[in-house]
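so im writing up the methods section and need the Pyrophosphate--fructose 6-phosphate 1-phosphotransferase record in one place, dumping it here so i stop losing it
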Amino acid sequence: MKSQARPATGRLLYAQSGGVTAVINATAAGVIQTARAHGIKVYAARNGILGALREDLIDTGKESAAAIETLRHTPGGAFGSCRYKLKSLEANRAEYERLIEVLRAHDIRWFLYNGGNDSADTALKISQLGKAMGYDIRCIGVPKTVDNDLAVTDCCPGFGSVAKYTAISTLEASLDVASMADTSTKVFILEVMGRHAGWIAAAAGLAGESADAPPHIILFPERVFDEAAFLAKVKATVERVGWCTVVASEGIRNAEGQFLAEAGTRDAFGHTQLGGVAPVLAALVKEKLGYKYHWALPDYLQRSARHAASKTDADQAYAVGKAAVEYALAGMNAVMPVITRTSDSPYRWKIEPASLDKIANREKKMPAGFLTRDGFGITAAARRYLSPLIQGEAPLPYGRDGLPKYGSLKNVAVKRKLAAFAP
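--- predicted struct ---
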């Protein structure tokens, strides 16, 4: 994390990567507003790293200060994102050389990549290639992922809001099921994101604390799915409470290591595509226990629900964007601004730099001490960790039509200087 002298001239390039969140644009606002305060011009890559490869850049200087401020409460990705993983330098050096060519052509001296594990890896590789090719570029990875699985950082911007949405949805849906259980639905199953780490599912546990409060069962990727134990728990809960709420991570696996929801395809990052674990579990409940059920798959709703965003999360998302610019201008390279918790109660946090090589291609899973002995719930330690992350509301401006007034940018293109390139 050595610092270098700041270049006399240059622009900053910002890009968003992977699945977007309710607060990723707050990070973009933090980047742009901080850079403007330092007199630095910011370009954004349209659709993530693909925009950089295609030389499809956006001049954020064409946006008013008011328009940039709206990003703080607007979900989605204002400049477009992508799922595109660069291969190794050895496997596809041409793409990396193209990136340096684009950066050089537009005098870009700072590159900020806002994403998860794969994005941290990309930023690290570009920083290494810049040195190898003699181009002065500082690369900063900016954290974002609803999965909360980045190493080093205490939590990931985007997670606190999806956690709040999940806890609220679990509570509200459970009140509905409880109302109808006598003559209708006995088992409700909510499927949430989380391929390898159960952080989002764990957040559902904040909906209730007593033994009979929902969710009655949480299924984590960190624990092997035991069909017999699951069915026994559902049956016992229905007999005792009258109904049962189940929250399941999409990535739960059986004893053979197979995803219950395996769809047989892979996404652009090479990750297994999952076809839905909730209907699989529902079919089990119906076949083995005969209970009437309902299941729900919030999918994009859980990560785009800005109306239910956590203020803590929105504040942290903005803070990492601000810090990323400050680190870049201070001459840091191949680092990421991470969140460090300094106190649980009262909850306090700060931003610190961490080396990308400590974060890239690493995955943080739920600690064993956060899961109850039977594997179906969260412990007091998990509650202490999770609860502060969903605190506070981040109000939205509403229009006369009763809908939120989200921002919309012009996204004016920068004139191309190079020949076309197809990634």
